[in-house]
UniProtKB/TrEMBL annotation:
The keyword Transferase applies. This is Mevalonate kinase. Keywords: ATP-binding, Kinase, Nucleotide-binding, Transferase. GO terms for molecular function: ATP binding; kinase activity. Pfam families: GHMP_kinases_C, GHMP_kinases_N. Residues 84-153 form the GHMP kinase N-terminal domain. Residues 253-302 form the GHMP kinase C-terminal domain. The keyword Chloroplast does not apply.
Length: 308
């Protein structure tokens, strides 16, 4: 395939916690995708994307990439001059990996050593994550490398801790009554300011303690129960996680969803959580009876991403 597609990603669990060594669970989302294309650059979108690639190429030319992950910068720049752009429908500022897909596409096309994602070992995953963090830092200031890694691998990934990641199998997607879904907050989120708020909070010893003793514990328990498809403990811990975020991550919850978030907790019809850094973009919803949750969330734009 000359122009492979790179899908968006969804971080089901681990937002903010992975900064403090919690587990994370992330999966590709094929509804949104992007690929590198050539054109005459006649639309504003194509022109803007091409110019962005030029600036990114300058960044790549000035950073030190480990030898085994070297990128053919000269060929990349030649292709940009020939009219290459990133053709993508992944919304920016929505927490689903628009820059991750771009980095993965460039790495796949221009890395000097070609790899087959399905045969990459756990140790190679760790090294790749580090390199992707360097490559994506251009867009966010800092990057864990997880987003481009997911987009590149196109497989669900379990983040075991800050250093270690592994491929993982999700429970089979069944057409049951339950669902995981995205809700559009109607507002673009900015990662930088949200992360800054989090680091300010981390200066408080009481916050650090509750983050470790409660948030990370609930987060890891949700991942464990979900992968085992043990839905009763899953929803029990998910409610605790949702309530903790409501109490402690107030600025990260988009204003348009604040009442709906509380209503879910009060009725147990659904639970909401952040999808990425929050502040806008998408929010994740979980319901054991999606039809009931959908009626209660009437007026919001929703997309189901997983059924159980």
């Amino acid at each position: 395939m000359t122009n492979p597609l790179f899908y968006a990603k969804i971080l089901l669990f681990g937002e903010y916690g992975i900064i403090e060594n919690s587990q994370g669970l992330t999966l590709p989302y094929s509804f949104y995708k992007g690929c590198l294309q050539f054109s005459q650059l006649q639309t504003d979108f194509e022109k803007s994307s091409n110019q962005s690639l030029k600036k990114y190429a300058e960044y790549l030319a000035n950073i030190k990439i480990p030898q085994e992950f070297k990128i053919d910068i000269e060929r990349f720049i030649e292709d940009i001059d020939k009219g290459m752009f990133f053709d993508s429908n992944i919304p920016q500022g929505y927490g689903i990996g628009s820059s991750g897909a771009l980095v993965a596409a460039i790495f796949e096309k221009y890395s000097l050593i070609k790899r087959k994602p399905e045969s990459i070992s756990k140790d190679e995953l760790k090294a790749l994550k580090k390199v992707f963090g360097l490559l994506e830092s251009y867009f966010h200031g800092t990057s864990s490398g997880v987003d481009p890694l997911i987009c590149y691998m196109n497989l669900p990934i379990l983040i075991e801790n800050k250093e270690s990641v592994n491929k993982v199998a999700l429970p089979e997607n069944e057409m049951g009554r339950g669902a995981i879904f995205l809700i559009d907050s109607g507002k673009i989120g900015e990662t930088g300011p949200m992360v800054q708020i989090f680091f300010e909070k981390l200066k408080n010893e009481g916050f650090r303690k509750t983050l470790k003793d409660e948030f990370i514990r609930y987060n890891n328990a949700c991942i464990d129960a979900f992968l085992k498809k043990d839905m009763n403990p899953f929803f029990r811990d998910l409610k605790k996680l949702s309530y903790w975020v409501y109490e402690h991550f107030n600025p990260m919850i988009p204003e348009s969803l604040f009442k709906a978030w509380k209503r879910g907790l009060d009725t147990n019809a659904y639970y909401l959580k952040l999808c990425g850094s929050g502040g806008g973009g998408y929010i994740l919803g979980f319901a054991q009876d999606y039809d009931k949750a959908e009626k209660m969330l009437e007026g919001f734009q929703k997309e189901v991403i997983y059924r159980f």
